[in-house]
């Protein structure tokens, strides 16, 4: 156990814990969620591999053009193509390192999870046995092991969050058919953990919509879902239209994701967003 923990600490001691969302003061999560982390890891790895495949295909295409250009084309165009190839190669190396780092973190996380499960099972077994001085000492040691494994898992979760990238969320408007009338004003509140986005919009006479903001960047979180709240503004009064939550696990992909969520229970008003990872 001590060898494994020192290995975890040494691999992640290059960055201050302040850099990790889950390790900020007052925000440490002492209840790791291995199943959720597994889902995020698999989605993240799949998305990174999509980016890697796309850039590898681009590199193959540029390399083919590079060979043809070398035989019969202008010298300036040849060097410009060469520059593009080098740029894509550098990006591919960064992606490969990114993927290896994510895999390394998740492997360390799984080790700590198995150690914690083993210590928990042993603690439960000792607690059912007759109480003796030796059993009490063993229980105390096992309790410390569980706490240390839990702390390491939380630390790794925070380290993994650094590698989740960014979500660029674009406002595409409300869809409500007869429910939306010219002059209506709405407020949309989007939250992901501590990150918040509040924007207001108005339905114009030509049925178009005008919003005071169009895009917001969110940093993905392992444990939080998007919370969306829509209210209608009527003078000094506000009327709640609906509140929904949206999981971000499907957003780890190369293509922009169009999201249409039902704000009301019957789906008479929907909110349309676009997310680019």
TrEMBL record:
Pfam families: PL48. Residues 2-277 form the FAM65 N-terminal domain. InterPro entries: FAM65_N (IPR031780), RIPOR3 (IPR026136). Coiled coil: none annotated. Belongs to the RIPOR family. This is RIPR3 protein. It comes from Climacteris rufus (rufous treecreeper).
